[in-house]
Amino acid sequence: MGDVEALSKKGQESKKIRKRVNAADKKPKKAKKKVAAVENEETLEKMVAVLVAKTELSEDAIRSQHASFLKECPEGEMTKERFVELSETVLGDEAQFLADSLFRVFDDDNSGSMDFQEYIMALNATKLNTPEDKLRWIFNVFDRDGGGSIDAVEIQEMVKGLFAMAGVEIGQEELLDCTEDIMEAIDVDGDGDITQDEFIEHACKSEFMANMLNAE
To answer: Pairing between strand 77-79 and 113-115?
Structure first.
């Protein structure tokens, strides 16, 4: 009887998760707004604070890179071609491949450009040595506002982004299945919000995430 009850309970939980995922899917998606040239010090301070929290860079290093970024891109947006030119000295032949992959994630409005915050996160992708590093980077990319947690909507965006990064198109049902798989594995307390610690600790319990990391 114990096994039957356990299976029944798991089935009920799975239905709850799918219901939450479906509800998230029906929410109107907010268009991601690219941040053009920062207009004032207060806005810059907020952006720098988010990037300090998401990367191992110091405030001074980020401000220095921001100044250099604006010299290269006065309007506050960098094209893929310019990204390749600037990263070729460090990445060599991998620069074009990395640019193609990262722009699939960051350039979701197909404008052909990325803003400074996206640029820093893109550069950070070259410093991922362990599964934990990769999971932390993935979380930080899709925790757009730096709030420290992601929900079912952002998990869906994460799944789409990871498939896009690999150059793979995904159907809606497969997208929902992968999102459900991740939520079921990671959202252990069932509150619908996933913190970075929860994500890093439990992500590999998701078949989708484990396969993705093993494929790296």
So the answer is: antiparallel
